[in-house]
Amino acid sequence: MTKFIAIVSGKGGAGKTTTTINLGHALTKLGKKTILVDANLVTPNLGLQLGFLNPEGTINKFLRKEKTLKEITYLHESGLSIIPASPSFSEFQKTNPQKIAELIEHLDDTADFVLIDAPSGLGFEVNEVIKQSEEALLVVNPNLSSVMDALKTIQLARHHNNTIAGIVLNMTHNGRHEMKPEEVEQLLGHHIVGNIKYDRKMRKALHHQMPITYMYPWSKSAREFKTIAHHLSLTNLHA
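Given the sequence above, the corresponding structure tokens read:
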């Protein structure tokens, strides 16, 4: 049975797409068939970060019944299976986000995990993504603004009876001028399942359009993503 997990954050720039990519690759390396979906129809980045700059097959065309599921699923050099959204504004204008449920229905029983890179905020699109998912994994930065916005996202997830899979604390510096992990956990009421520190290797991997878990598998960040993947795979076994 496929587990659908929405990768969400209260605001943009927290690191949802990077988390989706690296967590997806880590799950794949654990032997879990995993598909990544870019559900951010307004500003899609999943395909761009992996080198698919102008894909012919996209979610947009699938929702208009112009492409099949197979025609919009791409295999990345790292072994990742991804379904991109079109970066074109005209394609966005012709796409009805209410139909995202149709894609989710077609993906059921096709993989162990489907990770959905959700839009930021609390708008209609993220509401639809959360509604169609079973779990939500929150990506937050160690500052009060990011954490308080994530709190609203948690409340939205609860409204749709989603399980909170955990918190990924991203881009930490271990400095004095950021929130401590225990403070984040106390405010959000959920455990941190991964603490991704600021890492220059992450920037290099992004530049080369690769997951850090593929390009630098023994880096601290890659090992942390593997820990999160292990956590999710165990909860999947017990579901």
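The radius of gyration is 17 Å. Try to locate this feature in the token string yourself.
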